[in-house]
Amino acid sequence: MPATVAIVGRPNVGKSTLFNRLVGKNSALTDSRPGVTRDRREGLVRYGSQEFRLVDTAGLEQSPQTQLQNGMQSQTISAVTSAHLVLMVIDGRAGVTPLDQHFNELVRKNNKPALVVVNKSEGNVGEPTWLEAFALGLGDPIAVSAEHGDGITDLLQTVTEFLQLGSSLYGLSAPEEEGISIAILGRPNTGKSTLFNALLGEDRVLTGPEPGVTRDAIHINWTYANQTLRLVDTAGLRRRARITDNLEKISTEDSLQALRFCNVALLIIDAVEGLERQDINIAKNVAQEGRAMVICLNKWDLVGRGSKREAELLTKIGSSLPQIKGVCVIACSAKNKTGIGELMEQIFETYRQWNRRLNTSDLNRWLASATQHHPPPMIRKRAVKIRYITQYATRPPRFSLSVNRADALSDSYIRYLVNELRETFKLPGVPIRMVTRTGKNPYSR
Question: pTM of the prediction?
């Protein structure tokens, strides 16, 4: 396992900006308002031949007042406890504050080695704070500007030197294999984060009754049934017309980015509220991106046995999502941890179908039968001939039809072929792409 480095500090000192600078991409959400980060966010940092896992944490007040703030504090303490090195970030423009002293005590109580990072020190702005930071007793402070990149090389050099000295204790390894990437998607307050925690078997992300608790897309490497996985918890997706806050816009884009790069999209639907228009919109986005999809009816414990809700939802989903006909729907309760095993089995099965490659001879025998049963309609009294079919890619399965007139096949006939192919080769819940092409006429000039 790579060593773990945690970034801690009070609100609005630039922890997430420093996180993004070190991992080399804009992973964590940043904003001028304090308190943007809530959950722990992880990223892999490579510097030369060394690498380490970096953890971004929430900026906290000394005395949390709400349940959410208590949860944020617990997440930060957990990050400090599991870290091999702590980067305590202070604001170079504001000086060392009593709250900085509080975080200093937190690090000391956990007996963790730490470096003081004086951020926002572009030019000579942070020099007085840099001198003041010696009083924290954590060694030589390092002045940086996460926004402009000043001092980042010095910081990385110091961190990697420390980790090399401690490599006999926790070692540095090659990057972990990410495996199957699963993104948990859905409307706000459908139980995505509760399911995320239930799958991991720990309170890894914050949960609460109020919508919008999750802001960042949280990525975790995980192993289930000896299979390496990458699990992603995302913020709730509302209709774009209802999004007015800039922070929510960024959070929504973060969730959509997780969708674009996942293998399997796990769409969470509130079993009590039932299927809503936004659920259909999210499912259509999944189909358009070509991701495999499994639908989870969460909060099933509140619906009760013998309910007709599942059958009703299946009917509605089937009529609303012809692009991914036969998508699997699993009823579960994230709160009670029921249905988790069945859900994971279906995710693995859908992933296998998404990667499936069909034999060309089997495909062409199917094509001959399908076109004989329902021939392509004639165009201007001329027959449309489909010569053969090949599968040219997977993830999702993609097929090419060789036709004498490529523009002659209507969308409705292609949909017929897709549905027949899905039914014959058992490809439920997987987007299928089918394109047409015309062979070059050797007699044309």
Answer: 0.71
